[in-house]
Amino acid sequence: MAKLPARARRSASSRRPAAAVPRVTGKAASVDTGRLLPLDDRLYAYLLDETVREPELMARLRAETRRLPNASMQIGPEQAQLMGLLVRLIDARRALEIGTFTGYSALAVALALPADGRLICCDMSEEWTEIARRYWREAGIAERIDLRLAPAADTLAELIAAGETGDFDFAFIDADKENYDLYYEQCLTLVRPGGLIAIDNALWHGAVADPACNDVDTAAIRALNRKIRDDTRVDMVLLAIGDGLLLARPSQLEAT
Ligand SMILES: C[S@@+](CC[C@H](N)C(=O)[O-])C[C@H]1O[C@@H](n2cnc3c(N)ncnc32)[C@H](O)[C@@H]1O
Fold it and tell me: What CATH number did the domain enclosing 169 receive?
């Protein structure tokens, strides 16, 4: 991907607003829900068996992770495949991951990067990322991944302070939900216009639609979904894949 001149990358004020179309409210009542396809076990099994091209190594990492008590934190194979496709679609070379766990989503992204691509992974767990490192080495992509063991907000702030504004093509946010808004803002600074920010757990097991759920994590995700919906700095869509994947594309800059 050709890099924009530093001045263009840094000038947030010259962004062309993405969502110029007035929003119609109350859409839920006007949508024919009879057309929605419930993803039951049989249909999901079909989708996995017939359309997912998961490498054997990634299947093994999933199996090993399944033995951990926090296994459900890992994204599913169809989401991993989607993320790999998105990375390739935008010709990403530099990527960020906030929340790495045992390295499955990072593997999907790193395998989709070119050989000279780079992925910076943010996590705080030595124990879980030790498993990740083992699989990255086996996949032959360990040198593409720079794992930073520190609070993600600090790592992202350091990248911004180091002048890496607009230097990244892709970011995946999948860590502590309370800080999602902060990570989103930091990623908006770090990801170039026309790049992509993917935010996991945007449907949060359905809790976002339950007015009785008002815990800190649900409230944070709900507020961020709404904020991004109304954010003219990005184009956006929320995909009902996995636990909900919100995609936000920082707007292109006006030609000057
Ligand atoms: C949902 S898991 C990530 C799953 C991973 N993306 C995957 O699909 O395999 C969340 C991870 O975020 C990490 N984490 C939580 N809070 C963090 C923070 N403040 N800074 C960095 N990492 C954090 C946890 O250690 C955990 O590994």
Answer: 3.40.50.150
- 207: in domain: yes
Q: What is the pLDDT of residues 133-190, one digit of tens each?
A: 999 999 999 999 999 999 999 999 999 999 999 999 999 999 999 999 999 999 999 9
Q: Ligand 1, from 57, 78, 96, 101: best to mutate by most atoms within 8 Å of Cβ?
A: 101
Q: How far is the CA of 44 from the centre of ligand 1 (A)?
A: 26
CA 4 to ligand 1 center in whole angstroms = 31
Is residue 25 included in any domain, yes or no?
no
- For the entire predicted model, the pTM comes to 0.92
DSSP, residue by residue, the chain = -PPPPHHHHH-GGGBPPS--SPPPS-GGGGS-GGG-----HHHHHHHHHHH----HHHHHHHHHHHTSTTGGGSPPHHHHHHHHHHHHHTT--EEEEE--TTSHHHHHHHHHS-TT-EEEEEE--HHHHHHHHHHHHHHT-GGGEEEEES-HHHHHHHHHHTT-TT-EEEEEE-S-GGGHHHHHHHHHHHEEEEEEEEEE-SSGGGGGG-TT---HHHHHHHHHHHHHHT-TTEEEEEE-STT-EEEEEEPPBPP-
Any ligand 1 atom below 6 A from CB of 175: yes
Domain of residue 186: give its range.
Answer: 54-63+74-250
Q: Is the CB of 125 under 6 A from ligand 1?
A: yes
Q: What's the gap in Å between 101 CA and the centre of ligand 1?
A: 5
